User: What shape does this take?
Amino acid sequence: PTDQAPMARTIIDRDPTLLAAFDAQVAEADKHLATLLPRTPFAVLCSGPGWRVVRAATYGAAVGDPARWPSARQLYRPSGLCPATYASAGRRHDGAISREGSVTLRRAVLSLGVGLWRLDPAARPYAASLRARGKPPGVIATAMANRANRIAFAMVRDQRPYDPNRWR
Assistant: This one.
């Protein structure tokens, strides 16, 4: 309606200003994270492919004290990305993720997996083989998240930078 056009123009004119302010806040938060991350054991993750300050800090915040997790497997379970089995009346359905546990950890692990999938030359053939076998993108992302979690856990535990030859 033409009577609402001036109000719509006003709102649209404000959008770039709001977006610029939001971008400035994000940049400030990124700068703050970049100063805090080196003081944590998760700084080593920035050497991983596609893993920079935000992904490393998100994983670190979701994991908390890395010493409380004895293994990568025990850390992966609370992410809710483990397969769930549903059984009722003699019928069984396997394959869906359980979604039990920390949403923050699940998102952090999936984010690491996506970074690995996109930017690690050693991980790409694995993802391509899953795709060739007809796996849907969600299954591939979950598999890459599992791989990324194992790599990230070992990097933090050993405080060793990413070595592509080690993770082929």
